[in-house]
Amino acid sequence: MVETNGIAITTGLHSGWVAITVERWASAPECDLEAWEDVVETPVIWTNPQMELWGEGEGGILIIPPSQAPGNYRLRVHARNRERREIERHGELPEGHLLQLWPSPPKASELLKLTSRYGIRRLAKS
User: Fold this and answer.
1) How far apart are alpha carbons 81 and 95 in whole angstroms?
2) E strand or H helix at 38, and its extent?
3) Considering only CA atoms, which of 126, 66, 58, 125 is closest in space to residue 101?
4) Residue 124: exposed, middle, or buried by beta-carbon count in 10 A (0-12, 13-18, 19+)?
5) pLDDT-derived band of residue 123, with 50, 70 and 90 as boundaries?
6) What residues contact residue 124 under an 8 Å CB cut-off, 6+ apart?
7) pTM of the entire predicted model
């Protein structure tokens, strides 16, 4: 399924801060599976001139200025520390996500890595 103008990314935290890094690329970047627990790629059709990241609660909106034209893109979502036990084990290390976006013709979503219990439970529910 190709999403248009958005995609929902779930976090393991009910409340709290999540570290998010967004990277825009001209072509597919190298995929780093070692540093992340879960990694998935999905097609997205972007028709808006900017990207917005929305959070619930007090987090508000992060607007990412346009650097690429609207069109077909591939979004790679990386996640780690999505379980409270990981945060407690590593002290103040927050849940983290890396979002990488680049122009790409639509192709099926791909699960590249799934090792967290949270990710495995979410996949089982879908």
Assistant:
1) 5
2) strand 38-46
3) 66
4) exposed
5) confident
6) none
7) 0.80
* Main-chain phi, psi angles of 88, to 5 degrees: -65, -40
Query: Which alpha helices (DSSP H) does the chain contain, by range?
Result: 84-89, 117-125
Q: How far is CA 79 from CA 47, 49, 68, 113, in A?
A: 26, 26, 24, 10
Between the CA of residue 13 and those of 75, 94, 98, 107, 125, what are the distances in Å? Answer: 22, 10, 16, 30, 17
Which residue carries 């890595």 as its tokens? 113
One-letter amino acid for residue 81 of the chain: N
Per-residue pLDDT of 50-72, as tens digits, reads 666 666 655 556 666 656 678 88
For strands 95-103 and 18-24, give the pairing.
Answer: parallel
Instruction: Decide: helix, strand or coil at residue 122.
Output: helix
